[in-house]
Amino acid sequence: MDTLEGPALGLIFPSQPFEGRVIDEDFSLEYEAARRVGFEVGLYSLEEKRLLTPAVSGSALYRGWMMTADEYGAFYDRLHSRGTCLLTSPEQYRFCHHLADWYETLVEETPKSVIFKGPNFDWERLTEAFPSGPLILKDYVKSCKHYWEEACFIGDLDFAKVSRVTERFLELRGEFLEGGLVFRECLSLLPIGVHPQSNLPLTLEYRVFVFKGKILGVGDYWPQGEYGSHQRPPESWLQTVIEKIGSPFFALDVALDTDGRWWVIEVGDGQVSGLNDAFGAEDFYRRLAVALR
Ligand SMILES: Nc1ncnc2c1ncn2[C@@H]1O[C@H](COP(=O)(O)OP(=O)(O)O)[C@@H](O)[C@H]1O
Ligand SMILES: [Mg+2]
Protein backbone atom coordinates (compact mmCIF):
# COMPACT_ATOMS: atom_id res chain seq x y z
CA MET A 1 0.00 0.00 0.00
CA ASP A 2 1.17 3.52 -0.84
CA THR A 3 1.56 5.48 2.36
CA LEU A 4 3.43 8.65 3.14
CA GLU A 5 6.75 8.26 4.83
CA GLY A 6 6.48 11.41 6.91
CA PRO A 7 3.92 14.14 7.49
CA ALA A 8 4.97 15.97 4.34
CA LEU A 9 1.63 17.70 4.11
CA GLY A 10 -1.17 18.19 6.61
CA LEU A 11 -4.86 18.26 5.79
CA ILE A 12 -7.36 20.45 7.61
CA PHE A 13 -11.03 19.39 7.58
CA PRO A 14 -14.15 21.10 8.99
CA SER A 15 -15.56 19.83 12.28
CA GLN A 16 -19.22 18.91 12.64
CA PRO A 17 -21.12 22.18 13.21
CA PHE A 18 -21.59 22.82 16.96
CA GLU A 19 -20.47 19.33 17.90
CA GLY A 20 -16.98 19.93 19.07
CA ARG A 21 -14.15 17.70 18.15
CA VAL A 22 -15.72 15.42 15.57
CA ILE A 23 -15.31 15.52 11.84
CA ASP A 24 -18.16 17.02 9.80
CA GLU A 25 -20.06 13.95 8.67
CA ASP A 26 -20.01 15.07 5.04
CA PHE A 27 -16.21 14.87 5.10
CA SER A 28 -15.73 11.85 7.34
CA LEU A 29 -14.91 9.49 4.45
CA GLU A 30 -12.24 11.86 3.19
CA TYR A 31 -10.87 12.47 6.68
CA GLU A 32 -10.51 8.75 7.39
CA ALA A 33 -9.05 8.09 3.95
CA ALA A 34 -6.47 10.88 4.32
CA ARG A 35 -5.46 9.53 7.71
CA ARG A 36 -5.15 5.97 6.42
CA VAL A 37 -2.92 7.13 3.58
CA GLY A 38 -0.65 8.77 6.14
CA PHE A 39 -1.49 12.46 6.10
CA GLU A 40 -1.45 14.41 9.33
CA VAL A 41 -5.05 15.61 9.75
CA GLY A 42 -6.49 18.54 11.70
CA LEU A 43 -10.00 19.79 12.47
CA TYR A 44 -11.13 23.38 12.16
CA SER A 45 -14.37 24.80 13.50
CA LEU A 46 -15.92 27.13 10.95
CA GLU A 47 -18.30 28.47 13.64
CA GLU A 48 -15.68 29.11 16.31
CA LYS A 49 -13.11 30.12 13.71
CA ARG A 50 -10.31 28.11 15.27
CA LEU A 51 -8.32 24.91 15.01
CA LEU A 52 -9.66 22.27 17.38
CA THR A 53 -6.71 19.94 17.23
CA PRO A 54 -3.06 20.68 17.81
CA ALA A 55 -1.84 22.64 14.84
CA VAL A 56 -0.63 20.73 11.84
CA SER A 57 2.95 21.84 11.63
CA GLY A 58 4.30 23.06 8.32
CA SER A 59 2.43 22.98 5.02
CA ALA A 60 -1.19 22.02 4.72
CA LEU A 61 -4.20 21.94 2.46
CA TYR A 62 -7.82 22.39 3.47
CA ARG A 63 -10.61 20.10 2.25
CA GLY A 64 -14.09 21.23 3.11
CA TRP A 65 -16.97 23.61 2.49
CA MET A 66 -16.57 26.57 0.20
CA MET A 67 -15.55 29.84 1.77
CA THR A 68 -15.85 33.29 0.28
CA ALA A 69 -12.55 34.72 -0.87
CA ASP A 70 -12.51 37.06 2.16
CA GLU A 71 -13.29 34.23 4.57
CA TYR A 72 -10.44 32.21 3.11
CA GLY A 73 -8.06 35.13 3.67
CA ALA A 74 -8.99 35.31 7.36
CA PHE A 75 -8.80 31.50 7.65
CA TYR A 76 -5.35 31.51 6.06
CA ASP A 77 -4.11 34.16 8.54
CA ARG A 78 -5.51 32.32 11.56
CA LEU A 79 -3.82 29.08 10.58
CA HIS A 80 -0.62 30.89 9.79
CA SER A 81 -0.49 32.35 13.29
CA ARG A 82 -0.67 28.77 14.62
CA GLY A 83 2.23 27.61 12.46
CA THR A 84 0.13 25.97 9.76
CA CYS A 85 0.93 27.30 6.31
CA LEU A 86 -1.71 26.62 3.67
CA LEU A 87 -0.12 25.94 0.30
CA THR A 88 -2.74 28.04 -1.45
CA SER A 89 -2.40 31.76 -0.75
CA PRO A 90 -5.51 33.94 -0.40
CA GLU A 91 -4.70 35.46 -3.83
CA GLN A 92 -4.48 32.03 -5.43
CA TYR A 93 -7.74 31.00 -3.79
CA ARG A 94 -9.54 34.07 -5.11
CA PHE A 95 -8.09 33.55 -8.58
CA CYS A 96 -9.57 30.06 -8.98
CA HIS A 97 -12.74 30.77 -6.99
CA HIS A 98 -13.86 33.89 -8.85
CA LEU A 99 -14.67 33.66 -12.55
CA ALA A 100 -13.99 37.40 -12.80
CA ASP A 101 -10.37 36.69 -11.80
CA TRP A 102 -9.57 33.73 -14.06
CA TYR A 103 -11.71 34.72 -17.03
CA GLU A 104 -9.16 36.82 -18.93
CA THR A 105 -6.46 34.19 -18.42
CA LEU A 106 -8.63 31.49 -20.01
CA VAL A 107 -10.52 33.70 -22.44
CA GLU A 108 -9.60 31.42 -25.36
CA GLU A 109 -10.76 28.24 -23.63
CA THR A 110 -13.96 29.31 -21.92
CA PRO A 111 -17.35 30.61 -23.16
CA LYS A 112 -17.51 34.32 -23.85
CA SER A 113 -18.75 36.13 -20.76
CA VAL A 114 -19.88 39.57 -19.71
CA ILE A 115 -19.23 40.34 -16.07
CA PHE A 116 -21.00 42.91 -13.90
CA LYS A 117 -19.77 43.76 -10.44
CA GLY A 118 -22.76 43.69 -8.11
CA PRO A 119 -26.39 42.62 -8.66
CA ASN A 120 -27.30 44.88 -11.61
CA PHE A 121 -26.76 44.42 -15.33
CA ASP A 122 -26.35 47.07 -18.00
CA TRP A 123 -28.64 46.17 -20.90
CA GLU A 124 -26.62 48.13 -23.44
CA ARG A 125 -23.33 46.52 -22.52
CA LEU A 126 -24.96 43.10 -22.46
CA THR A 127 -26.58 43.37 -25.88
CA GLU A 128 -23.49 44.95 -27.41
CA ALA A 129 -21.57 41.81 -26.47
CA PHE A 130 -24.43 39.41 -27.19
CA PRO A 131 -26.77 40.46 -30.00
CA SER A 132 -28.78 37.28 -29.37
CA GLY A 133 -29.14 34.36 -26.95
CA PRO A 134 -28.97 31.81 -25.64
CA LEU A 135 -27.04 32.73 -22.50
CA ILE A 136 -26.60 31.30 -19.06
CA LEU A 137 -26.44 33.34 -15.85
CA LYS A 138 -24.34 32.77 -12.72
CA ASP A 139 -22.38 34.84 -10.21
CA TYR A 140 -18.59 34.83 -9.79
CA VAL A 141 -18.83 31.40 -8.09
CA LYS A 142 -22.14 29.58 -8.58
CA SER A 143 -25.13 29.20 -10.83
CA CYS A 144 -28.64 28.07 -9.92
CA LYS A 145 -28.39 25.26 -12.48
CA HIS A 146 -31.08 23.18 -10.81
CA TYR A 147 -33.49 26.04 -11.49
CA TRP A 148 -32.40 25.91 -15.13
CA GLU A 149 -35.49 27.36 -16.82
CA GLU A 150 -36.31 30.01 -14.25
CA ALA A 151 -32.93 31.20 -12.95
CA CYS A 152 -30.09 30.03 -15.22
CA PHE A 153 -30.91 29.64 -18.91
CA ILE A 154 -31.88 32.65 -21.04
CA GLY A 155 -33.13 31.63 -24.48
CA ASP A 156 -34.29 34.76 -26.26
CA LEU A 157 -32.46 37.90 -25.34
CA ASP A 158 -35.28 40.26 -24.49
CA PHE A 159 -35.18 42.71 -21.61
CA ALA A 160 -38.18 41.30 -19.77
CA LYS A 161 -36.80 37.77 -19.92
CA VAL A 162 -33.31 38.76 -18.74
CA SER A 163 -34.82 40.80 -15.91
CA ARG A 164 -37.08 37.94 -14.83
CA VAL A 165 -34.30 35.32 -14.79
CA THR A 166 -31.91 37.70 -13.03
CA GLU A 167 -34.47 38.57 -10.38
CA ARG A 168 -35.17 34.92 -9.66
CA PHE A 169 -31.44 34.14 -9.60
CA LEU A 170 -30.81 36.96 -7.09
CA GLU A 171 -33.71 35.77 -4.98
CA LEU A 172 -32.32 32.22 -4.87
CA ARG A 173 -28.70 33.24 -4.21
CA GLY A 174 -29.84 35.74 -1.58
CA GLU A 175 -27.04 36.63 0.83
CA PHE A 176 -24.75 34.10 -0.84
CA LEU A 177 -24.40 36.09 -4.04
CA GLU A 178 -20.67 36.42 -4.63
CA GLY A 179 -19.09 39.17 -6.70
CA GLY A 180 -21.75 39.97 -9.23
CA LEU A 181 -23.60 38.77 -12.33
CA VAL A 182 -21.96 36.83 -15.15
CA PHE A 183 -23.76 36.25 -18.45
CA ARG A 184 -22.14 33.58 -20.62
CA GLU A 185 -22.70 32.41 -24.15
CA CYS A 186 -24.63 29.15 -23.82
CA LEU A 187 -22.78 26.53 -25.85
CA SER A 188 -24.24 23.50 -27.51
CA LEU A 189 -22.59 20.90 -25.26
CA LEU A 190 -22.88 17.17 -25.94
CA PRO A 191 -26.01 15.88 -24.16
CA ILE A 192 -25.74 12.79 -21.94
CA GLY A 193 -29.11 12.75 -20.21
CA VAL A 194 -31.37 14.80 -17.98
CA HIS A 195 -31.04 15.28 -14.23
CA PRO A 196 -33.70 13.06 -12.60
CA GLN A 197 -34.61 15.62 -9.91
CA SER A 198 -34.35 18.98 -11.63
CA ASN A 199 -34.64 18.19 -15.38
CA LEU A 200 -31.36 20.06 -15.92
CA PRO A 201 -29.86 18.94 -19.26
CA LEU A 202 -26.69 16.93 -18.48
CA THR A 203 -23.75 17.32 -20.82
CA LEU A 204 -20.42 15.57 -21.30
CA GLU A 205 -18.45 17.25 -18.53
CA TYR A 206 -15.47 16.10 -16.47
CA ARG A 207 -13.84 17.34 -13.29
CA VAL A 208 -10.06 17.39 -13.36
CA PHE A 209 -8.05 17.82 -10.14
CA VAL A 210 -4.59 19.33 -10.52
CA PHE A 211 -1.86 19.41 -7.88
CA LYS A 212 1.41 21.24 -8.52
CA GLY A 213 0.83 21.21 -12.26
CA LYS A 214 0.12 17.48 -12.43
CA ILE A 215 -3.24 15.90 -13.19
CA LEU A 216 -4.36 13.97 -10.11
CA GLY A 217 -7.37 12.49 -11.85
CA VAL A 218 -10.16 13.04 -14.35
CA GLY A 219 -13.63 12.08 -13.14
CA ASP A 220 -17.19 12.19 -14.47
CA TYR A 221 -18.86 15.42 -13.38
CA TRP A 222 -22.42 14.07 -13.33
CA PRO A 223 -23.06 10.89 -11.32
CA GLN A 224 -26.40 10.69 -13.18
CA GLY A 225 -24.93 11.13 -16.68
CA GLU A 226 -24.59 8.44 -19.36
CA TYR A 227 -20.87 8.66 -20.08
CA GLY A 228 -20.64 5.29 -21.86
CA SER A 229 -17.55 5.21 -24.03
CA HIS A 230 -17.54 8.94 -24.80
CA GLN A 231 -14.12 10.52 -25.24
CA ARG A 232 -12.27 12.12 -22.36
CA PRO A 233 -10.45 15.46 -22.47
CA PRO A 234 -7.12 15.22 -24.33
CA GLU A 235 -4.17 15.55 -21.98
CA SER A 236 -2.26 17.93 -24.24
CA TRP A 237 -5.16 20.37 -24.25
CA LEU A 238 -5.55 20.07 -20.48
CA GLN A 239 -1.84 20.80 -20.02
CA THR A 240 -2.04 24.03 -22.01
CA VAL A 241 -4.85 25.16 -19.70
CA ILE A 242 -3.08 23.99 -16.54
CA GLU A 243 0.07 25.90 -17.39
CA LYS A 244 -1.86 29.16 -17.36
CA ILE A 245 -3.06 28.75 -13.78
CA GLY A 246 -0.66 29.65 -11.00
CA SER A 247 -2.29 27.83 -8.11
CA PRO A 248 -0.90 24.66 -6.45
CA PHE A 249 -4.25 22.90 -6.17
CA PHE A 250 -7.30 23.46 -8.34
CA ALA A 251 -10.11 21.77 -10.22
CA LEU A 252 -11.13 22.32 -13.82
CA ASP A 253 -14.59 21.45 -15.08
CA VAL A 254 -14.33 20.85 -18.80
CA ALA A 255 -16.98 19.94 -21.36
CA LEU A 256 -17.20 18.92 -25.01
CA ASP A 257 -19.42 20.73 -27.49
CA THR A 258 -21.29 19.12 -30.36
CA ASP A 259 -18.57 20.23 -32.81
CA GLY A 260 -15.95 18.32 -30.85
CA ARG A 261 -14.30 21.31 -29.16
CA TRP A 262 -13.32 21.21 -25.48
CA TRP A 263 -14.14 24.11 -23.15
CA VAL A 264 -13.35 25.12 -19.59
CA ILE A 265 -16.73 25.61 -17.93
CA GLU A 266 -15.40 26.40 -14.48
CA VAL A 267 -12.22 26.69 -12.46
CA GLY A 268 -12.46 25.93 -8.75
CA ASP A 269 -10.06 25.92 -5.85
CA GLY A 270 -9.06 22.30 -5.26
CA GLN A 271 -9.69 22.59 -1.52
CA VAL A 272 -13.41 23.25 -1.91
CA SER A 273 -14.29 21.30 -5.07
CA GLY A 274 -16.37 18.19 -4.42
CA LEU A 275 -15.13 14.73 -5.32
CA ASN A 276 -18.54 14.25 -7.06
CA ASP A 277 -18.62 10.44 -6.51
CA ALA A 278 -16.17 10.14 -9.40
CA PHE A 279 -13.13 9.90 -7.15
CA GLY A 280 -13.09 7.39 -4.32
CA ALA A 281 -11.73 9.17 -1.25
CA GLU A 282 -8.91 6.74 -0.60
CA ASP A 283 -7.89 6.70 -4.25
CA PHE A 284 -7.89 10.50 -4.28
CA TYR A 285 -5.63 10.86 -1.23
CA ARG A 286 -3.33 8.15 -2.46
CA ARG A 287 -2.88 10.04 -5.73
CA LEU A 288 -2.17 13.19 -3.73
CA ALA A 289 0.45 11.31 -1.72
CA VAL A 290 2.09 10.08 -4.93
CA ALA A 291 2.08 13.59 -6.40
CA LEU A 292 3.90 14.86 -3.30
CA ARG A 293 6.87 12.60 -3.82
N1 LIG B 1 -21.62 28.45 -21.22
C1 LIG B 1 -22.35 27.35 -21.04
N2 LIG B 1 -22.93 26.73 -22.09
C2 LIG B 1 -23.68 25.63 -21.90
N3 LIG B 1 -23.92 25.06 -20.69
C3 LIG B 1 -23.34 25.63 -19.63
C4 LIG B 1 -22.53 26.79 -19.73
N4 LIG B 1 -22.10 27.13 -18.51
C5 LIG B 1 -22.62 26.22 -17.67
N5 LIG B 1 -23.37 25.32 -18.34
C6 LIG B 1 -24.09 24.20 -17.74
O1 LIG B 1 -24.57 24.61 -16.47
C7 LIG B 1 -23.93 23.87 -15.44
C8 LIG B 1 -23.61 24.75 -14.26
O2 LIG B 1 -22.72 25.78 -14.61
P1 LIG B 1 -21.42 26.07 -13.76
O3 LIG B 1 -20.74 27.23 -14.36
O4 LIG B 1 -20.63 24.82 -13.63
O5 LIG B 1 -22.02 26.51 -12.35
P2 LIG B 1 -22.03 25.78 -10.92
O6 LIG B 1 -20.92 26.42 -10.17
O7 LIG B 1 -23.35 26.11 -10.35
O8 LIG B 1 -21.80 24.31 -11.12
C9 LIG B 1 -22.70 23.25 -16.09
O9 LIG B 1 -22.33 22.05 -15.46
C10 LIG B 1 -23.17 23.03 -17.53
O10 LIG B 1 -23.93 21.85 -17.61
MG1 LIG C 1 -20.22 23.46 -12.09
Commentary on this structure:
The structure is a single chain. The chain has 293 residues and is an alpha+beta fold. The chain has three domains: 10-88; 112-185; 189-270, D-amino Acid Aminotransferase, Chain A, domain 1. It is built from nine helices and 15 strands. It has helices at 28-37, 69-81, 90-97, 99-102, 123-129, 148-151, 159-173, 235-242, 281-292; strands at residues 10-14, 40-45, 50-51, 58-62, 84-86, 113-117, 135-139, 153-154, 180-185, 191-194, 201-203, 205-211, 214-220, 249-256, 262-269. The strands form four sheets. Strands 3-2-1-4-5 form a five-stranded mixed beta sheet. Strands 6-9-7-8 form a four-stranded antiparallel beta sheet. The two termini are 15 Å apart. The protein binds adenosine-5'-diphosphate and magnesium ion. Magnesium ion binds next to loops. Adenosine-5'-diphosphate binds at residues 111, 136, 138, 142-143, 145, 184-187, 189, 203, 205, 253, 265-266.
